[in-house]
Amino acid sequence: MEFNDLVEFIEKVTKSKCTRLYYCVHGKTLSTGLRVIKCDLDIYRFLDHGVASGGRIALYIDHYNEDLTDVIGEDSLTDLVNDVNMATNDDGSESSDHIYQSQKEEDEVSNLILLDHEDNDVGTLNKTIHDPFLTLLCYDSDDMEEDVNSVDDWDANKDDDDSDGVEQKVEPDVIYPSYDPTINWKLTKPVVGMKFESPSQLKESLIDYGVSNGYQLVFPVNDYKRLLVRCGKKETNVEEVEGVQNKKTRKCPFRLWASRIIGESSFQIKTLNEKHICSRKFSLGSLVTHTWIAKPYFKQIIQNPYMSVRAMKSDIMRKFKCKVSLGQCGRAKKKALLEYEGGLKEHYPKLSDYRVEILRTNPGSNVKMVVNTMSDGKEYFSSYYVCFKGVKDGWINGCRRVICLDGCFLKSEETLIIIFPLAWAVVSVENKENWKWFGILEAMKDIFPYAEHRQCTRHIYANFKKKFHGLHFKNLFWAAADSTIEQDFEEKMNEIKAINKEAYIHLVERNPKSWSRAFFEVDRACDAYKNGMSESFNSCIRVA
After folding, report:
1. Of the segments 70-84, 279-293, 357-371, 506-520, which one has the largest average pLDDT value?
2. Which helix (H) or strand (E) element contains residue 21?
3. Which of 429, 447, 465 is the last residue of a domain?
């Protein structure tokens, strides 16, 4: 018989796809005697054990899309055993040649193996599995075979070594507590039998438990109906035997198995070995994500949106004793703000309602919104202008006749109350077209044709020094800008001309009457030639 023949026969009898086969060595328990059948060599060993057991041996299978915990109960294992009757020689020899020959015909295979299979819908199965080895079979990874073949190290009932702790199990007819999500995260601790609303709630509590104690927990099995948790830390000890040093690596014995309760949507911890032999670990890997970071820092981020990611990283190390990256902190901050404020797609549709509400509550205000219709037929935001009626009246009645105009990138809410903002506009990009749309310069020419227009001297110099470097040019420029009479201005400009005529022409083309104090009107009650007020306003609204 070959491996494929056995699989084909079992799939025909069970009417389901067989993903994995096991058998239990005669005279041993499941936790010590279960073996995997995955090739022809395993088939030969399986047949040898069957002959040695008198022709009967327990055969177990994993059904397709069904884990072993759904079809086998701890107290009814013998009722669900798949019995395999094997033919032997008349003399009882264990090396019957015809057993190892390939059987290609279906009737020949049927004559060789007799299998009693119980359908899944017969009776009510007890899905509470207390055998730690049966839960081991529910691994989704290929590492299961390695654990199965080393099953002797897995017996939770061994008495010869108590250093690995004792695995606790759910007992029947016992009322177990439910998880309290309001408990302080530092006090979170798994308890056998504890019930949870969902696997995600259980996982969140285990993450809190791992972070608070510095345990690097891993989740080999993690789906909607089962959860296997282990400690991924390994301890390496060096032992010296007869002068030779040997390194011995030992896995942390912590292990938790949880699954769905029959007839409920809740989860329960079924088995638990709560002992750890590992020391605190500060790098917890994937256990700490930006989603987890955002949870304890949610209120703090909302109250202080300007909190830097570096400060958050240092605070996490101080409070939680774990290392995180700046990227994780940045994503956590973004997630918290997004959850609180909502996304941009939710904000833009509200701009029209905002405009209507401003005009309703502030009659006389000016609100203008521009949208562009693209080739796909959808409307996209272009610009938004706001000037409140009360702000206009306040400027006319209580402010100097000085208007500062500047542009900046908006990144957060504006909270400055010292400067008096007259009007503002939000545009897609800063260019001449949008400046013209803002309309301040054109409106001032029409309404106030005699108004004085000044340019920010700092911006003039920033463009000037790109072409003309040096401390000499810098001192002469600021001396010219700071001159209070035209004669002083002309003197400084001539010095610049003597050094470099192109530098002189560059400054003259920028209209010195708009950036030098020597030409400012004396009745404006303002001799400022820098737009520092607008820049300070920008620095407040740009803080992220």
Report:
1. 357-371
2. strand 18-24
3. 447
The candidate with the shortest Cα–Cα distance to 265, out of 215, 219, 196, 318, is 196
Buried b (16+ CB within 10 A) or exposed e, 227-247: bbbbbbbeeeeeeeeeeeeee
Q: Is residue 400 part of a domain?
A: yes
- Beta strand spans in 351-463 (E): 366-373, 379-387, 424-427
Q: Show the beta-strand stretches assigned E in 201-353.
A: 217-222, 226-231, 234-241, 244-251, 255-260, 267-273
Q: Within a domain: residue 470? A: yes
Give whole-number Cα distances, 469 to 311, 456, 464, 503, 509, in Å.
Answer: 39, 20, 8, 10, 18
> Are 24 and 33 in contact, with CB atoms under 8 Å apart?
yes
Q: Which residue has the tokens 């899944």?
A: 120
3-state class (DSSP) for residue 323: coil
For residue 485, which amino acid is it? I
Helix (H) or strand (E) holding 19: strand 18-24
Q: pLDDT for 331-343, tens place per residue? A: 999 888 888 777 6
Q: Are residues 209 and 278 in the same domain?
A: yes
Q: E strand or H helix at 85, and its extent?
A: strand 82-86
Beta bridge partner(s), residue 196: 267
pLDDT of residue 224: 81
398 exposed, middle or buried (CB, 10 Å; 0-12, 13-18, 19+)? exposed
- 24 in the same domain as 36: yes
Number of domains in the chain: 5
Q: Say yes or no: 84 and 56 in one domain.
A: yes
Report whether pLDDT(128) > 50. no
What confidence tens digit (pLDDT) does each residue in 378-423 have? 888 888 889 999 988 988 888 777 776 666 555 444 444 446 677 7
- pLDDT at residue 464 greater than cutoff 70: yes
Residue 218 sits in the same domain as residue 333: no
In the structure encoding, which two tokens stand for residue 245, read together? Answer: 């040093």
The residue ranges of DSSP E strands in 388-423, in sequence order, are: none
- Residue 264 lies in domain: 163-284
Residue 216 and residue 282 in contact, taking contact as beta carbons nearer than 8 Å: no
- Looking up tokens 């040997």 gives 246
Burial string for 344-369 (b: 16+ CB within 10 Å, else e) reads eeeeeeeeeeebeebeeebeebebee
Two tokens at 516? 């030098």
Q: How far apart are the first and last CA of the chain?
A: 71
- Give me the residue label for tokens 């995180």: 324
Cα–chain center distance at 449: 58
**Average model confidence (pLDDT) across the chain:** 73
Last residue of a domain, one of 110, 126, 142: 126
Mean pLDDT of 295-311: 86
